[in-house]
Amino acid sequence: MPWEKSFDEDLALEKAMQVFWSRGFGSASMAELIAKTGVNRGSLYNAFGGKQPLFVRALLKYDRDRRKALLSELEALDDPRRAICNFFDNIIANTLDDADHKGCFLFNTVSESGTHDAQVNEIVANGLREIEGFFRRSIEVGQARGDIRKDIDPSSKATALLALTLAIRVLGRGPYNEAALRTIADEAKNLIA
Amino acid sequence: MPWEKSFDEDLALEKAMQVFWSRGFGSASMAELIAKTGVNRGSLYNAFGGKQPLFVRALLKYDRDRRKALLSELEALDDPRRAICNFFDNIIANTLDDADHKGCFLFNTVSESGTHDAQVNEIVANGLREIEGFFRRSIEVGQARGDIRKDIDPSSKATALLALTLAIRVLGRGPYNEAALRTIADEAKNLIA
DNA sequence: TATTGTTTAGACCGATTGGTCAATACATTG
DNA sequence: CAATGTATTGACCAATCGGTCTAAACAATA
Q1: Which of B146, B141, B153 is nearest to B191 (CA)?
Q2: Which of A64-78, A149-163, B49-63, B111-125 has the lowest mean pLDDT?
Q3: Which of A1, A142, B124, B145 could form a disulfide with A147 if both were Cys (CB 3.0 to 4.6 A apart)?
Q4: Residue B1 burial by CB count (10 A; 0-12/13-18/19+): exposed, middle or buried?
């Protein structure tokens, strides 16, 4: 019977994710993916099928390991207002910690809209919907508990919070410094003050 | 003496701008730039020097023809609150009108941060500063005239408005529909309500 | 009309792109 | 130990990348 793989597929996928995350699909070359994963060309094609399927796998991994993990952790706090504040503190910390300024893989992919197929667009759209859903649910629960004013519309505020999240992640990639990012985060928190 | 050019340099630059605007620097190919401008390969290199200088020229043209033109027009209104509202109505209209979903050339270039040189980054950073400055000045003047509440901080609200502008332009490229974009714009207007 | 200096035209270049493939290595099964 | 079937390897592929360069086209000047 067969022969087991000689490399850690999930570890290789993690490395590939980093490459796509920082360069985007178009600017990431197979040469770099091969170098960074340490997996031979043929083996990479054998294991993942090609650049596009590898990108999808990497994006799904990001969505699972980062986005879902963070939202689950925050919802588990069972403290809506604090969950939202922690969310912004968290993405700002991530932004400042990352010397490569990769931003968020999902939002980066939104910026590349048009170059991607329906499957990729759906993964991204779903991720955004779930972040927005997290905001909306948090606001609703906060209102039910009397922690958040009842005269704000959960749905539209959730959309605004998602918008500010995107802005922090995109601006954090380049021109904006820590103070400016924190200003945006503070404005976000003020929306549900 | 010499021989005058046979093609309209500014018209060619306009076409090149459209290509870079929709594809970004990396994904735009010289082949497409040649096809869309209608200018022969050698002539294009002779006139602009290469892909990178052509990109810079295109970005500068966008900054001058679109960003500066819009801000000047709005400041000329001499009605700060209306200027800000018109700004958001304008970018939403632009977003919905553009069947190619190109978004904003400046913000698109922010998303490509890291792949660009200092000159490009400076053009973008300056454009963003000026948009934010437009918001801040508008708020300050509005406050001086009693049109806008005095208890809001012009500087931080200006940053928030810029952030929401970016979000509209990026989300408008792909996953978000008109209603969602208008929700963000309404939240922006509410910030200075 | 001959000379001059620039523009145009597109063939051509080496480098890089994503992708393929036949030979080889290998652990498992019989 | 031989047979089996998958994993690995790196040479190889056509296509495309951005860029160069020489020969021809051309209008202005002399």
Answers
A1: B153
A2: B111-125
A3: A142
A4: exposed
Block means of pLDDT (10 residues each) for chain A, 193 residues, are: 75 98 97 97 96 98 98 97 98 97 97 91 98 98 97 98 98 94 98 94
Task: Give the DSSP H/E element, type plus range, for residue A67.
Answer: none
* DSSP structure class, residue B64: I
Question: Can you tell me the distance from the alpha carbon of B39 to that of B159, in angstroms, rounded to the nearest whole number?
Answer: 41
From CA A97, how far away is CA A91, in angstroms rounded?
10
Instruction: Report angle CA B175, A120, A64 to the nearest 5 degrees.
Output: 100
Using a 7 Å CB cut-off, which residues contact strand C?
A 1-4, 28-31, 41-42, 45, 50-52; B 1-7, 39-43, 45-47
CA of A153 to C1' of C7 (A): 63
Phi, psi of B136 (to 5 degrees): -65, -50
* B chain contacts of residue A167, beta-carbon cutoff 8 Å: 162-164, 166-167
Please answer whether residues B39 and B54 qualify as being in contact, where contact means their C-beta atoms are separated by less than 8 angstroms. Answer: no
Place of tokens 């966008």: B62
The verdict on pTM exceeding 0.70 is yes
> Structure tokens of A187?
């404005």
